[in-house]
Design a protein that fits this description.
Elements: E1 8-9, H1 11-16, E2 20-26, H2 31-34, E3 43-53, E4 56-70, E5 77-91, H3 94-98, E6 104-107, E7 113-114, H4 115-126, H5 137-147, H6 151-171
Parallel strand pairs: 5-6
Antiparallel strand pairs: 1-7, 2-3, 3-4, 4-5
The structure holds zinc ion.
The site of zinc ion (ZN) has 7 residues, from loops.
């Protein structure tokens, strides 16, 4: 296992050798994903295997890791585990894509494939549109507030963080 995970590769070359790659990818290197998560310091680990089914190049893999999303109810961090399996077939046209039945199409532009883009797409597809804590976090916050007399200062103290989180989210 190597920690170096190449970005651009030749999928045909890997498929003919039945190659496999595994390693870690920094979240900061995934630009679109960085816009959806609060914590950019972490990384995800991925394993990708290449093979040929007939003439078709198949790219299958697994992604694991944890990202921090912003809960859409309370605007606090929400830990979201990733455990993604994917199977893609390289296609060069939409017509070819429509003929696939057992895997998702991977439209290739040119000869090289960006593995970072594949991994990023799979993660973005797996993320919920409206992430929320499983428990009723707003009710939880309300009952906490009721227990303390310093409700106002607490609420104010919390707000800068959600503003910061938003800045962080849109800042880059
Ligand atoms: Zn929440």
């Amino acid at each position: 296992m190597s920690d170096k995970f190449p970005d651009h590769i030749d999928p045909l070359l890997f498929a003919e050798r039945r190659g496999a790659l595994s390693g870690d990818i920094k979240i900061a290197a995934l630009e679109r994903l960085s816009g959806s998560v609060l914590d950019h310091g972490g990384s995800v680990s991925a394993r990708i295997e290449f093979s040929k089914e007939g003439k078709r190049i198949v790219v299958a893999g697994h992604i694991e890791g944890v990202v921090e999303l912003e809960c859409q109810s309370c605007l606090q961090a929400l830990t979201w585990p990733l455990d993604i399996d994917f199977k893609l077939a390289v296609v060069s046209s939409l017509k070819e894509a429509k003929q696939l039945d057992d895997c998702e199409p991977l439209l290739l532009d040119g000869d090289t494939l960006s593995l970072n883009a594949v991994i990023e797409d799979e993660i973005l597809l797996a993320l919920p549109d409206y992430p929320r804590h499983e428990h009723d976090c707003l009710a939880h916050n309300r009952s906490e507030d009721a227990d303390y007399s310093a409700t106002d200062s607490q609420t104010k103290a919390n707000n800068p963080f959600s503003v910061l989180a938003k800045l962080k989210k849109t800042g880059d």
